[in-house]
Amino acid sequence: MFELRRLRLLHELALRGTLSAVAEALAYSPSTISQQLAQLEKDAGVPLLVPDGRRVRLTEHGALLAAHAARALELDERARGDLEALQPGIAPVRVATMQTAAHAILPGALALLAEREPDLRVEVTELPPEEGLFELSARRFDLVIAEQYPGHTRAHVDGLTRRTLGADAIRLAVGPSEPPVDLAELHDRAWVMEPPGTAARQWAVQQCRAAGFEPDVRFELADLTAHVRLIAAGLAAGLLPDLIWAGAAPPVRLIDLDGAPAREIFVAQRSSSTSRSGIQAVDAALQDAFPASRQT
């Protein structure tokens, strides 16, 4: 019989590509990962891994077993969901969230859960949406709060479902003492944006290009509160979502953009976890908390 724990290691290797990445994600030593996979090879009776330079790669047998491992993990999760339906709260709900949702949505959602499900343990980690969605597939998290920008739909991944929480308006932000301006008038300004490779950065650059200029991105920062400080000090311009204010008065001047663009905020989970009552409770609380956190 195959041990599910070893099958998960093979599944993780298929997702992450290297033994060191699997070890880091699961807090094991690489030698432990290697030993467990070697035992899995003995259980299978066929080679699952072959050396590939300084790494290893899955053989045809390994890839086949990894696919079966994914299905076995789904069945395990469904079984746990059925058990939780009989005894709610027996497992914690692990949530990955982007920074703005951590500020503006989660506090309200957690307050609702404290009233509705006082025995439910919710664990929260802040991660960029790109990383959070990957880790959701890898079963590190149960729910992910993420976003997608107008015209930039995120890839749909087999085994994951998503539900929209709401829309979050994006506005041009300049120093508090500056007069209202159009985006095109800021062609010679310094800009603060999120790092390259993020959906937010791609969208912001495209808005500037559509206005007829290439932005001078002098500040690349993942922390949006740092964006706010630079803009409030008059050192940069930026494009900021309303959720960053979490109901507080913005210390910058906000200017509506043409077309009133908004990003979609959504929550994603694995299809195999839909029966878990704890996840359903957290999902409902996030939905109920969102309207109260949105700036109007």
Indicate the CATH topology of the domain at 168-263: D-Maltodextrin-Binding Protein, domain 2
Looking at the overall shape, the CATH architecture of the domain at 168-263 is 3-Layer(aba) Sandwich
* Assigned CATH class of the domain at 168-263: Alpha Beta
- One letter per element, helices H and strands E, the order comes to HHHEEHEHHEHEEEHEHEEEH
Low-confidence stretches: none
Rg computed from alpha carbons, rounded to a whole number of angstroms: 22 Å
**Main sheet specs:** 7 strands, mixed
Let me know the number of strands: 11
What does this entry show, briefly?
This protein is of the alpha/beta class and 296 residues long. It is built from ten helices and eleven strands. The longest helix is centred in the N-terminal third of the chain and has 27 residues, at 60-86.
